Amino acid sequence: MAETPARDKILQIISQNPGIHFREIQRMSGMAVGQAEYHLYQLEKSDKVIIKEDGNNRRYFLPDQGSLQDRKIIFYLRSSIPSRIIQSIIRSGEIDSSKILRGRKAKLEKIKKAIESMEKDGIISRKVVNGTDHIFLTDRDHVIKVIKRYRKGFIGTLEQNLLSLLDESDS
């Protein structure tokens, strides 16, 4: 059964941008906030979308959009701190955890929480090398395949993360 044109538009946006959050859907669809909320609620109620909480944001996926592990990878790639950790690991193969566990107390707690969460979800693993804790991607090739498969949907997120990183370096 076909959805309404508004819901079809939302489903198309989510299909092209898995893990997208509400404001992006609302902006890309051109719908008013209440209208977008209503249609997303109806799609959620009819199991047409899957929602994963990300702090104050809700991230949206289609149920048949890759495996559960793919959705977890996308979820972390769309979040600033986990995305930076994953990008660092991709560049270097593995990283000494002391190199990323830096910053003020509040930021340090966010980094620790991200590492614990990604380890629990099987995205990253740890090993001790010469007494030093190292973090690596559990399945690096799979993470890279997911990034390549959904690269168009990450452009906005990558731009936002880059700008955030540049803002941090100014302070």
TrEMBL record:
Q: Where does the record place the HVO-0163 N-terminal HTH domain?
A: 6-65
User: Cross-referenced InterPro entries, in alphabetical order?
Assistant: HTH_HVO_0163_N, WH-like_DNA-bd_sf, WH_DNA-bd_sf
Q: What is this protein called?
A: Winged helix-turn-helix transcriptional regulator
Its source organism is Oxyplasma meridianum
